Amino acid sequence: MLEKQLLHIAQEFGSPVYVYDSEKIISQYNRLTQAFSKVKNLRINYAVKALSNISILKLLKGLGSGLDTVSIQEVKLGLMAGVAPENIIYTPNGVSLEEIETAAKLGVQINIDNLSILEQFGTKYPNVPVCIRINPHVMAGGNTNISVGHIDSKFGISIHQIPHILRIVENTEMTINGIHMHTGSDILDIDVFLYASEILFDTAKHFSNLEFLDFGSGFKVPYKEGDIETNIEEFGKKLTKRFNQFCKEYGKELTLAFEPGKFLVSEAGYFLTKVNVVKQTTSTVFAQVDSGFNHLIRPMLYGAQHNIINVSNPKGRERFYSVVGYICETDTFANNRRINEISEDDILAFKNAGAYCYSMASNYNSRYRPAEVLWHNSEAKLIRKRETMDDLVKNQVAVEL
Ligand SMILES: Cc1ncc(COP(=O)(O)O)c(C=O)c1O
């Protein structure tokens, strides 16, 4: 999006505000499906956790996407967006049997990642086909918080426990219709994906009623200037060849599924904030914005780097700034960043604000969560109102003291 469009949106809707460019979401979706165009049955299940606004889910549904969900609430959001239950996969971790039963009754594809629930669910519902999430024991991902397929991770059923899975399946007479893995996020090296895929193929050979193989996600997108990204096109060519060969060996045209979050929405998002104060100290110049890690936690949580641009002064002289928020503890978005000269009231845009930004926002410091705007067909549409004082207190119960 152009700087002047972002500036207009901040002027029209106020700040802080999240903006999503539908064109970028569409082009990323098309890029991924194009990379796998030689797979007969391809399914993209957008990972709702990345950005769960219903209008975004509707946009993706319109493109032909299904959904990957991790909570019963995400399942319900998907259904509210009009996505058919059979196009929703539910991949929870460590939830109760009751929650999984509720999801099964709504008709979504269940994906189970532990032996205890597999046995209980299979015993009660032998006629509901289930997908199994394996733990391939592969260390991959941009940082430890988002590396989830290694031996010490809580996710998935170990590939060393396949005999136990098979025993449960035999005893309960349940049907396993899919095998799934997700090894982490921000994975650059396609050889890591291909290596883990071999483990998925090896696992799949043990199950005779499969309909799909789900390779999860974790594609890396560029965050910083000059950053490299997962080469989706090359990965598409290599995995397609291997997948089609596996289907021949297996004797059935299976569906190849992915569940990308970041790849589809990260670069489509911008977070617009206003500079309240420019503060010179003995060591730096702080630009203090009208937001904080309550609205965008990734820099403080993961050390994530979001590019920041000054959309009010895009041609100004570049200077060095530490961009910080208003939360009453260390609240740093960026240190020593080269940004076009900043004045108070300027609007700063944080890039890559589509994935894991609004969806991780909170009310910490009793601040309102921001508004969300969709930039679609050259028009800015409000898709979530900024919260108000009523939202902060609506569930509080005042007692007589
Ligand atoms: C099970 C599962 N699938 C898909 C995703 C999406 O990953 P990404 O945003 O890296 O594409 C995640 C992210 O945490 C996940 O846990």
Automatic annotation (TrEMBL):
Homodimer. The keyword Lyase applies. InterPro entries: Ala_racemase/Decarboxylase_C, DAP_deCOOHase_LysA, De-COase2_C, De-COase2_N, De-COase2_pyr-phos_BS, Orn/DAP/Arg_de-COase, PLP-binding_barrel. Keywords: Amino-acid biosynthesis, Decarboxylase, Lyase, Lysine biosynthesis, Pyridoxal phosphate. The active site is at residue 328. This is Diaminopimelate decarboxylase. Specifically catalyzes the decarboxylation of meso-diaminopimelate (meso-DAP) to L-lysine. The gene is lysA. PANTHER family: DIAMINOPIMELATE DECARBOXYLASE (PTHR43727), GROUP IV DECARBOXYLASE (PTHR43727:SF2). It catalyses: meso-2,6-diaminopimelate + H(+) = L-lysine + CO2. Pyridoxal 5'-phosphate binds at residues 218, 356. Residues 24-266 form the Orn/DAP/Arg decarboxylase 2 N-terminal domain. PROSITE patterns: ODR_DC_2_1. GO terms for biological process: lysine biosynthetic process via diaminopimelate.
